[in-house]
Write a structure and sequence with these properties.
Blueprint lengths: L3 E3 L1 H8 L4 E3 L3 E2 L6 E6 L5 E7 L5 E7 L7 H13 L8 E6 L8 E6 L2 E6 L2 H4 L2 H12 L3 E6 L12 E7 L5 E5 L2 E5 L14 H10 L5 E5 L5 H6 L5 E6 L2 H13 L5 E5 L2 H10 L4 E6 L11 H17 L1 E11 L6 H15 L3 E7 L18 E7 L1
Parallel strand pairs: 1-4, 9-10, 14-15, 14-17, 15-16, 17-18
Antiparallel strand pairs: 1-3, 2-6, 4-5, 5-6, 7-8, 8-9, 10-11, 12-13, 18-20, 19-20
Helix pairs in contact: 2-4, 8-9, 9-10
Length: 384
């Protein structure tokens, strides 16, 4: 297979631990999509990469050695990725987190006996059958679903579709997270069927909720946080703008035999503002909003939104109350998020303690030299 030559700048990025080489750093190309050998400006072999001819991210490092990237190679990498998840107390979690597991542009999520995958680059698309086969052999699922309905594929020149790759996958799958059960929707739910990245933070919320207290779950979606909170709190108010999401949340509560959750349709900003004015108080509050910043240019506005909603939540905390707050906006980095929380605490007039900085679970590994592998950040706060 013909190789691709890259500039010194592109080669240096691999040396420094980042797996991407961009369009402007590739010279004299002409290779088709797929796995290609890569050479530096002097013609020296530096590795093998997934090549995407139409993408701004032209090369994604797969292997530094000159050895076949075949079915055996994929099974070896998949086994190593699975080994990093040993001991998870859940039946739904991420098995492969793309670049975080050294398998760029590949997502593999387990939902009990089934697998949901995403293939996110043109280079990887050429290996679809081999990768699906390796996943099937390594993990032995009853079915594999391809959730390739994501916008990033358009930038790779690929179509968007949801398709069955192996066996059969149910529309709804009951999974377990600690002592809580919920229903995932692999065919049409958010991401690959559920928000798996918040798993450890949901478990934490259930642990820190004040026993016999009053809890509030904003942006409740399908109630995953709310059901965990309901294990200790006397009452939980679950708030979301989507009636359909709340109905799914109520079904999850019923699945767990929880009758102490009120499901309320409403805007979190407006509701928290009204609660603050009325001096409503909660012992535990969870803020898990959708991403406010889709680009770096949107960060200032996003930080204003995060400041506003965290300020209102802080003012609604009872003395000794706990706030678990998060952001899934990649472009809002952790230092910015913590500075925003400090400003909100100052404006709240409350003395707020930082108990813990939160992030992704071990099934969503974050590599220090690849900032794109980390996007979820949060904090556990407590008011005096």
């Amino acid at each position: 297979m013909s190789g691709v030559r890259v500039t010194a700048r592109g080669a240096e990025r691999w040396v420094r631990g980042h797996p991407w080489i961009y369009r402007s750093e590739v010279t004299g190309e002409g290779a088709p999509a797929g796995v290609v050998p890569v050479h530096d400006a002097r013609g020296r072999f530096i590795g093998q990469a997934l090549h995407s001819p139409a993408s701004e991210i032209r090369l994604r490092l797969l292997e530094r050695a000159d050895r076949p990237v075949d079915a055996g190679w994929w099974r070896e990498r998949l086994a190593a990725s699975a080994a990093r998840r040993t001991g998870l107390d859940a039946t739904a979690y991420r098995l492969v987190h793309g670049e975080g597991d050294g398998l760029p542009s590949l997502v593999v999520d387990r939902y009990d006996r089934w697998i949901v995958m995403q293939i996110l680059s043109a280079g990887l698309e050429t290996m679809r059958e081999m990768v699906v086969g390796a996943v099937a052999e390594e993990f032995g699922p009853e079915g594999i679903l391809l959730r390739n309905d994501v916008a990033v594929r358009r930038r790779e020149g690929l179509d968007e579709a949801v398709s069955l790759a192996l066996g059969d996958v149910p529309r709804r799958i009951e999974v377990r997270e600690g002592e809580v059960r919920y229903v995932a929707a692999p065919w049409d739910g958010q991401k690959t069927g559920a928000f798996l990245d918040q798993r450890p933070n949901r478990l934490l919320a259930g642990e820190v909720a004040m026993a016999g207290g009053r809890a509030l779950d904003c942006f409740a979606y399908h109630g995953s946080f709310a059901v965990h909170l309901a294990r200790r709190a006397a009452s939980v108010l679950a708030l979301d703008v989507s009636r359909e999401a709340l109905e799914r949340g109520a079904a999850n509560a019923a699945l767990n035999g929880r009758t102490n959750i009120e499901w309320r349709e409403g805007d979190a900003f407006e509701t928290l503002r009204a609660f603050a004015r009325a001096r409503e108080r909660f012992d535990t509050v969870v803020l898990d909003p959708p991403a406010f910043a889709k680009s770096r240019a949107a960060v200032p506005g996003a930080l204003r939104g995060y400041h506003e909603i965290n300020l209102r939540a802080m003012r609604c905390l009872a003395p000794g109350g706990t706030l678990l707050t998060a952001s899934c906006s990649f472009h809002v980095r952790l230092p910015e998020f913590l500075r925003m929380l400090a400003d909100a605490a100052a404006d709240s007039g409350r003395r707020i303690h930082l108990r813990r900085v939160l992030g992704q679970g071990i099934d969503h590994p974050e590599v220090l030299t690849i900032p794109e592998t980390g996007y979820l950040k949060g904090a556990l706060l407590q008011a005096e």
